[in-house]
Design goal:
273 residues, mainly alpha, Arc Repressor Mutant, subunit A, 2 domains
Length: 273
C-alpha cells in the first residue's frame, strides 16, 4: 500500500517540486484545463479532470524514464496539444466567439475535442507506464538468467571437482593394490628362498654324514623343485622381461638350474614366453 501511494502520489509531486518551472507550468496547465472542462463537467469534477490529466502526464514521465520508446514523445505532444486546445477554446469562449449554446455539429465537434485530448494524454501515459514495467520485467529476467547461469557453472564446477576427487581415490586404491601385490610377491620369494636354503642345508648335512638320501628326502627335493618352478612361472608370467640372472640370485639358485626349471615349465605347458 505504501509503495502504491508513493508511486502514484509522491513521485509525480516530487518531480514537479524538483523542477520549479515544471511546477509553474503544471499549475497553469491545470488552471487552463479546469476552465474549459467546466463546460462539459460541473464543479468540482472539472478540477479533478484537470489535475488527473496533469498527474497522468507526470506519472508517465516517471514510468518511462530511461526507457527507449516512442510513447515518451507522444506523451509530451499529447500534453501540449491538450493545453493548447483547452486554452484556445477557453480563450474563444471568453471573447464570446463560441456561443453558450452552439449548433449541434459544433457541439459534437467540441465534445470530440474535449474527450479526444484527455484520452490521448491518458493513453500515452498508460502505454509509457507499460513500457517501463516491461523494461523492469526484462531487467529482472536477464538478472534471473544470469543467476541461473552462475548456478549452473557452480554445479558444473562442483561436479568436475567431485570427478577429480573420485579419480584420485581410484588411483590411490589402484596404487595400494599394486603395493600389496608387490609385498605379497616379495613375501613369497622370501619364503621360497628360505625353503631352498633349508633344503640345501639338509642335503649338505646328509652328504657330510655320508648318508644316502632316502625316498623321503627325494620327495622333499622334488617338492622344493616344484615350488621353485611355480615361483619362476608366477614371476615370468607377471613380469616377462625380468632379468634372468637377477631372478636366479633372488631364488638362490644358479642360472643353469633356472633355465632347467624354465624348460620344465614350458614342457609342462605352465609357461609360454
Amino acid at each position: 500500500m505504501t509503495t502504491t501511494i508513493r508511486a502514484f502520489v509522491r513521485e509525480p509531486f516530487d518531480l514537479a517540486l524538483g523542477q520549479p518551472h515544471q511546477m509553474l507550468i503544471s499549475s497553469a496547465s491545470v488552471a487552463i484545463v479546469a476552465v474549459e472542462a467546466a463546460t462539459i463537467v460541473p464543479w468540482p469534477f472539472n478540477i479533478a479532470l484537470a489535475i488527473g490529466a496533469e498527474w497522468a502526464y507526470l506519472r508517465g514521465l516517471i514510468s518511462g524514464a530511461g526507457v527507449k520508446t516512442p510513447w515518451a514523445a507522444r506523451l509530451n505532444a499529447s500534453a501540449v496539444l491538450l493545453v493548447v486546445l483547452y486554452g484556445s477554446l477557453a480563450g474563444l469562449r471568453s471573447f464570446h466567439l463560441i456561443p453558450a449554446s452552439p449548433p449541434p455539429f459544433v457541439a459534437v465537434l467540441l465534445t470530440i475535442i474535449h474527450i479526444g485530448a484527455i484520452s490521448a494524454v491518458t493513453l500515452c501515459s498508460a502505454m509509457l507506464h507499460r513500457a517501463g514495467e516491461d523494461a523492469k520485467a526484462e531487467t529482472l529476467r536477464i538478472a534471473a538468467e544470469r543467476e541461473q547461469h552462475r548456478a549452473e557453472e557452480e554445479r558444473s564446477y562442483q561436479d568436475n571437482l567431485k570427478r577429480q576427487r573420485d579419480q584420485q581415490q581410484l588411483e590411490l586404491e589402484a596404487e595400494w593394490r599394486r603395493a600389496q601385490l608387490t609385498l605379497e610377491t616379495e613375501r613369497q620369494r622370501a619364503e621360497l628362498r628360505a625353503s631352498v636354503r633349508a633344503s640345501r642345508g639338509q642335503i649338505a648335512a646328509g652328504s657330510a654324514a655320508n648318508t644316502v638320501p632316502n625316498s623321503g628326502a627325494n620327495n622333499q627335493t622334488n617338492t622344493d623343485r616344484a615350488q621353485l618352478r611355480e615361483q619362476i612361472v608366477r614371476t615370468l608370467s607377471e613380469q616377462p622381461r625380468t632379468n634372468r640372472s637377477a631372478l636366479a640370485r633372488s631364488l638362490g639358485i644358479g642360472r643353469t638350474t633356472l633355465y632347467e626349471l624354465i624348460d620344465e615349465a614350458k614342457r609342462a605347458g605352465e609357461l609360454n614366453i
